[in-house]
Amino acid sequence: MIRPATPDAVAAAAEMIRRGEVVAFPTETVYGLGADATNPEAVARIFALKRRPAFDPLIVHIADRAMSALVASAMPPAARVLAERFWPGPLTLVLPKAAVIPDIVTAGLPSVALRMPDHAVARALIEAAGTPIAAPSANLFGCVSPTTAAHVEAQLGALRLVLDGGPCRVGIESTIVSFVEEQAALLRPGGVTLEDIERLIGPLRIGTDPVRPVAPGQLPGHYAPRLPLALVAMVADIPAAERAGAALLLPQPDADAEGFAHIELLSTDGALTTVAANLFAALRRLEARPWRCIYAVAVPESGLGRAIMDRLRRASAGAPAVQR
Ligand code: TXA
Ligand code: MG
Q1: What percent of the chain has pLDDT over 90?
Q2: I need a surface site. Which of 104, 244, 249, 319 has the fewest CB within 10 A?
Q3: Could you tell me which residues come within 8 angstroms of residue 163 by beta carbon, excluding any fewer than 6 positions away?
Q4: Over the stretch 191-216, which tens digit does the pLDDT of each residue have?
């Protein structure tokens, strides 16, 4: 059931978390599906509801800096610098895990992913529950993350409670930086830019080690739209003959965008914050209609554009091929 995130609803949700139940809640990035991170049975319910494979670990959400000592057993100086600068916010740090976090949360890894969301409802919920909350994005495994309460209910209809905090401000998931090895590594581009991180702590190693994948959820086709999706550099790259029956996912207005059956315009000015905030809702709308295929137009691959392009690449890798 969707309930506006009033103080009463947040208190009821916190009580459910304490009892070992699962609750969906808003964050600034996407909606999460939360349970008490210290309760393995509660966390197991998340995996069942999402149909998520047990090898894919969860992010633990905290309300304040003090709580991080409960979840992580150590925080290297560079991680501390990032936490000081970007928490609360769309940044997840992978750190050595504390004993109180059960193996099911980390899929057996000795590390734990940790973040403090920049959303009053999320933090009020964690604080009232009095425990860190483990939460993946509140979608079925392999689907695009939800940015509204209605998105959550559309996929996970059986949930007892979805706290409605309105549409998510950032709209794409958090940036994940791992500190388990000597050099910090970017495991997933997201709401905090690589440039802003490297300015503070120097160069990161990019991506997962191909030999030892360290962010097990980051499979190339992890998000698989039902319709064929092709990523193109420019609208002009799409031949006129291939536009009929096709939908266009367009970051900003473009004079070349003619002849398509449908256009999802992500911003009126190309601002990447706006493009990111609108991206997942637009993908959901596109998937709901029987377009012959979807063409997505690239954005510059810097700043927030890196995270946007990462999601678009995963979408095109997971989708059936466009028939020409
Ligand atoms: O913005 C977000 O991060 C959202 C909101 C709800 O906080 N959450 C989110 O969770 O995107 P999820 O489960 O969809 O993605 C978590 C990612 C997965 O790719 C997982 O493999 C990685 O974090 N992860 C979690 N624990 C890890 C660990 N110990 N080491 C490496 N990667 C980890
Ligand atoms: Mg997810």
Answers
A1: 87
A2: 244
A3: 3, 5, 9, 10, 13, 23, 24, 25, 26, 121, 125, 149
A4: 999 999 999 999 999 976 544 545 55
